[in-house]
Specification:
Elements (H helix, E strand, L loop, with lengths): L4 H8 L6 E3 L2 E7 L3 H18 L4 E5 L2 E6 L9 H17 L1
Helix pairs in contact: 2-3
The protein binds ligand H2B.
EC number: 4.2.1.96
Catalytic activity: (4aS,6R)-4a-hydroxy-L-erythro-5,6,7,8-tetrahydrobiopterin = (6R)-L-erythro-6,7-dihydrobiopterin + H2O
InterPro entries: PCD_sf, Pterin_deHydtase
Length: 95
């Protein structure tokens, strides 16, 4: 179920790396180099499969940009926050 804007902003207080706009939550992570970045992306990919929830993302060298929304629901849902939490746990170690 799509969350309303105020619920999203409230939840985001626990996710300082993330911001809400254009119906999705977004974060940008910078690593030391491409290898570390791609290693984090591989770990995230396994987590996405486990959660059956997938990011819109892009990578340029050591920078990873991630947008999360639930396409089926047409906005941000709890699934996006669950994936964001898993991404944070991975990136904390790698970044
Ligand atoms: C069939 C399967 O459950 C869906 O296609 C899943 C897969 N991953 C997904 N990921 C995202 N971000 N949104 C979805 O609506 C979505 N749907």
């Amino acid at each position: 179920m799509k969350l309303d804007d105020s619920t999203i902003e409230k939840k985001l207080l626990r996710f300082p790396d993330w911001e809400f706009h254009k119906n999705a939550i977004h974060a940008e992570f910078e690593f030391d180099n491409f290898k570390d970045c791609f290693s984090a992306m591989s770990r995230i990919a396994f987590e996405c499969e486990a959660q059956n929830h997938h990011p819109d993302w892009s990578n340029v060298y050591n920078v990873l940009k991630i947008s999360l929304s639930t396409h089926d629901a047409g906005g941000v849902t709890q699934k996006d926050f669950n994936l964001a939490a898993a991404i944070e746990a991975i990136v904390e170690v790698e970044e």
